[in-house]
Amino acid sequence: MTTQLIILILLLGLVAGIMSGLVGIGGGIILVPALVYFLHYTQHQAQGTSLGVLTFPVVILGFLKYYYDSKRTGEPIDFRVVGLLAVGFVIGGYFGSSLALKIDKEMLRKIFAVVLLYTAAKLLRLDEAVLQFFKKSA
User: pTM for this structure?
Assistant: First the structure.
């Protein structure tokens, strides 16, 4: 690996880590497109790399920060919910990755893009704006 590539990868990790800590996105929204664009990874490589980054040691510091702050403010994180979500996430991650490996990389890229667009539209409440527009038009 060249020094330039190492610096680029570290910067991508830094940005993904900041975004993950800031809004809890898990890094995939940043990492997957960045790996495809900057490192010319296939969609499969990018998604697998993103999942590899999400291993326990990486996310523990962000989790602990939220845990202690939530506890301090009287709104603690429920470990039962964390545990149950983790079980579902592990099982879902296995089956989801098995399914992804059966899908053509170009189709997988399109599915990923649609998921990102849908998420953005919901977060921006564009669906509500469209409904309001049609109600006023009717």
Answer: 0.67
